[in-house]
């Protein structure tokens, strides 16, 4: 069952809660990890050279040229985009069907077109990187600058980059230390594919990374040596606009079951069908300014400072719209 009845935690006696726990999703093995347009811009701002991204782009394009006559390249593409056709193309290649077979060739053409669209959109494949579900360290042992990352082979150690889409702020990419936590094994057992954040610190690390939290958010984790070598993190995001004070929100625990259902449906309908272009406009404007900012020389100090102010304002608008 996806929902089970649970007992109330005695340690949380001061909080009102419900007696049901619904499992919405679980952590899964990470697929081929790709950068995004925003992430490329932030990495570039942090010191990663343009050659890093250009090499990925050119190597991927070069490999795609051989997809119709090289079994290895064809299988790689089929596996990378296997979700599109339920691994049909990959299975056909593995059983020995020739690459020039019309049906298989048609499949490969679609995969190749999709890959080129991804590259055009800045979705560059990057090695030694993963998208993992984030949650809080239940042991309380992790320090402020530490995380615990669990992959297929278990917990890893060493520096990692941590980011959350769709972050736009210059400080949304953190450099943290992946740390082995023995006591965590008692909680997770043989579970895999997750990143645990510390309880300690004046502010939640999740909130510092694009205003994230731990209710199922996926975090970009990278131990790519080139990224770690060149990237220099910035200060975390802090909103420049004071939070609006509103007392109109209703407290769920004080509503009856019928009133709560009505409120939830009303909220869903407003969110689903209320037209809003604020998020897209703010993101597009930020990217336009960021592109210009990254091409300006160091001698254009005043212009860059003015552009950065505008970008910071756009970031606040963007994050406010996301939370609306």
Task: Note down, in words, how this protein is organized.
The protein has helices at 37-45, 50-64, 71-80, 88-94, 102-120, 185-188, 205-208, 225-230, 257-273, 278-295, 301-323; strands at 3-5, 20-22, 129-136, 146-151, 154-155, 158-163, 174-178, 194-197, 218-222. By secondary structure, it is an alpha+beta fold. It folds into three domains: 34-125, no CATH class; 129-230, Barwin-like endoglucanases (Beta Barrel), CATH 2.40.40; 252-323, no CATH class. It starts with a strand and ends with a helix.
- The DSSP helix count reads 11
| Share of residues in strands | 5-15%
Structural class: alpha+beta
* C-alpha end-to-end distance: 32 Å
Low-confidence spans: none
CATH architecture of the largest domain: Beta Barrel
Give the H and E element order: EEHHHHHEEEEEHEHEHHHH
Major sheet description: 6 strands, mixed, barrel
How are strands sequenced across the largest beta sheet?
A: 3-8-4-7-6-9
Number of strands: 9
Helix content: 40-55%
Total tally of structural domains: 3
The CATH C-level name of the largest domain is Mainly Beta
GO molecular function: RNA binding; RNA-directed RNA polymerase activity
Domain RDRP core: 1-324
InterPro entries: RDRP, RDRP_core
Keywords: Nucleotidyltransferase, RNA-binding, RNA-directed RNA polymerase, RNA-mediated gene silencing, Transferase
